[in-house]
Amino acid sequence: MTYMETPPSPPAGPPRQPDERRDALELAAASVLVGLAAWAIDRALFHFGHFSWRLAPDLLMQALFVLALSAFFASRARILLVQLVLDVFLFSLNSIKVQLMQIPVIPTDYLLLREGAHIIGADPRQKFFWIIGAGLIAATACIAFMVGSFRRPGVKRLARAVPAALFCAVVAFLYGPYCDAVDRFVTIPWPAQTEREESFGVYFSFSIELARLFSNTNGIASLKEVARAEARLLSGQPRAADRPGRRAAPPKRNIYFFLTESFWDPVPPGADQPSPSLLAPEFNALWSSAGRQHMLSPTFGGGTADVEFEALCGMPSAIVFEGIVFQNALRRPLPCLPRILAQNGYRTFAFHSNSGGFYNRDVAYHLLGFDRFYDREALDSSEKIAGQFISDRSLIEQAVRTARRQAAGRPFLAYVMTIAGHWPYRWDDKLYPRTLDVSWPGDETRRQEAERHFNINYYTSGLLADWARRIRKEDPDAIVVITGDHQPGLAFQSPVPDEAPLRASGAMGPRYFKTPLLVLDRGRAKPARPEESAYEVPDDILDRLGLPDQARYHMPLFRRSGRGGVRPTVNGTILLNRGEDFKDCTPPASDPACYWTWGWLRDADVVATDLTLGPQHLLNP
């Protein structure tokens, strides 16, 4: 039998090398699909968010994260599974936090954990802590799961981590250009946090807030720098002998502080009042008797929390801080009006008919020194506006009654932040009388919106005037402060005086930052000046109580000098206020009278950042 010899097979060539580029692209595409799957799971569970092209940056960030992991771990399946677990956890955490606290996940949430024992208590928001605990367990399991596929990366593999590293470097070190680029990318006017989350996703929105936090913490000054800034700010103040004489400290008096959403006077200063009046006659009469003073707000059309920060803490927020101060620039307890009053024997209460977590107020109010914050969960919500928020009538009544009861004979601060004037101006036929018929440019929808707003503004002014009279009758020694947080966005469409000289640089004129300021204090004459910046209000209150400058910490530093008062605003405008005269000092203004305002703002930035985010050298020299 003849056997045929099988010819030998050709020698095997070198093993086929994987195509790194193709492998990376396939992994990135798989990561995008996993991200969409996680978003769909979260949407099914919590009905939060909607699909938009603005999710693209968020999906891109997830792909960069996955590619960076693939440089160090071999198993593609394990990497994608870890991404899915992490995405579902973060999306769920964010959805629960938004639904319970009206605010998404932000970098300063560690403060919520640190201060939780003081501000949370036994309420539904404890779910937030339960899901954080579950997430920590899941994260530990993911780390253990990934360890088995670890490998030492080669040069080509290590290159996969470069894009993620570069992005992190941009957020950490080029936060200014990054925030500017994002602001140009944002097309939602005055976006609420929930709108940003729905549009941009958790990862991208978190990176924005992180960049703002880095921007605020950049260049925290040393002890010597803070001392120099303090000396320069003090050097511009009038001498003690030049300041108006202060009477002997009166008995401690209760303080009622009403900050009212989008409350303004639509009639330009100096113009004749129309008929019917756009504010209730009772309020107009009371306001006129008190000097018809205005507060200069740092914002227009939104950003209430920044106005609150100024009106309670006595330092400017606009220009000095990036983003919302309550979310991005608070790290430790501050010597604000509530804390200073508490140190002098007062009880301090805050009231607001929104969720306590919105604008991070749960944490912020505690750091500002309030004894107790009553949000919508802590109040009787039987009377609501169109089924949404507690009516201002009910809120004010509950606030006054609760503050008097809880103070138990001690002096108190009752700070009330109303909400009826908030866009979209929810209407309730059972609560609001329709007093004004409004004609408005645009379609019928715009006209109806404007009519709702002007009628709510009219109603609110009458409500505040009624409560001011009641308080003066029942508590005659009290100080009553009533003001608006900012003008509504629709104020741009209302007729205003020609302010072309002030707006030549593109800056907004002072007309758009004025809100009524009514201070009732029977022992004090009419105000010395027609306008007062929001950050000057708490120092004025403490002055009326007769507290010495030493008890006011930083507030005397920001008093206006003989040169005038500086009003930085959220859109970058800098106004120099000298009585009824204003100058536009927005850089690059050429008026020599403006030059000192820029140095004042730099020093204000040093002091404010030291107090909020720094080691508080000013308090511990």
Explain how this protein is built.
By secondary structure, the chain is α/β, with parallel strands linked by helices. Helices cover 45% and strands 9% of the residues. The protein is built from 22 helices and 13 strands. The chain has helices at 20-46, 56-70, 76-101, 109-114, 116-119, 126-147, 155-158, 162-173, 175-185, 193-200, 202-217, 223-235, 281-289, 304-313, 325-328, 337-343, 361-368, 392-407, 444-474, 500-503, 537-545, 595-612, and strands at residues 255-260, 293-296, 347-352, 372-374, 384-385, 389-390, 412-417, 479-484, 514-520, 531-533, 565-568, 574-578, 581-584. The strands form 3 sheets. Strands 4-3-7-1-8-9-2-10 form an 8-stranded mixed sheet, sandwiched between helices. The chain is globular and about 115 Å long. 43% of the residues are buried.
Describe the secondary-structure layout:
Layout: H1 20-46, H2 56-70, H3 76-101, H4 109-114, H5 116-119, H6 126-147, H7 155-158, H8 162-173, H9 175-185, H10 193-200, H11 202-217, H12 223-235, E1 255-260, H13 281-289, E2 293-296, H14 304-313, H15 325-328, H16 337-343, E3 347-352, H17 361-368, E4 372-374, E5 384-385, E6 389-390, H18 392-407, E7 412-417, H19 444-474, E8 479-484, H20 500-503, E9 514-520, E10 531-533, H21 537-545, E11 565-568, E12 574-578, E13 581-584, H22 595-612
Parallel strand pairs: 1-7, 1-8, 2-10, 3-4, 3-7
Antiparallel strand pairs: 2-9, 5-6, 8-9, 11-12, 12-13
Helix pairs in contact: 1-2, 1-3, 2-3, 2-8, 2-11, 3-6, 9-11, 12-22, 13-19
